């Protein structure tokens, strides 16, 4: 069946990912540590798995995330019948992100640093 096939594909991909992780014995290259400004930049040496839990509060509106809305005093709301998940304070889902510090150590380090400091918490 299609469900069984998808499970087998997922299992195979996870196995390949594990094999890839085991093949890396050390960090593949040196991230420059000079000048002094680079010493203050967060660097991810390896990989990190991040889970984003998405939800929308019940008082959120369709235009609340747009800073340049035409009529900011009366933002348009999303009708509950069209998108019930957006109109209630319920989780919309979880997204898993793999930050690959082997490919982009400075970018991933910066993203992880912002996550740890709570920058992305409660964003509209």
Automatic annotation (TrEMBL):
Keyword Isomerase included in the entry's annotation: yes
Q: Which GO terms describe its molecular function?
A: peptidyl-prolyl cis-trans isomerase activity
User: Mind telling me which InterPro entries this protein's record contains?
Assistant: E_coli_cyclophilin_A-like (IPR044665)
The EC number of this protein is 5.2.1.8
UniProt entry keywords in alphabetical sequence: Isomerase, Rotamase
> What name does UniProt use for this protein?
peptidylprolyl isomerase
Species annotation = Rhizochromulina marina
User: Which lineage is the organism of this entry classified under, starting from the top rank?
Assistant: Eukaryota, Sar, Stramenopiles, Ochrophyta, Dictyochophyceae
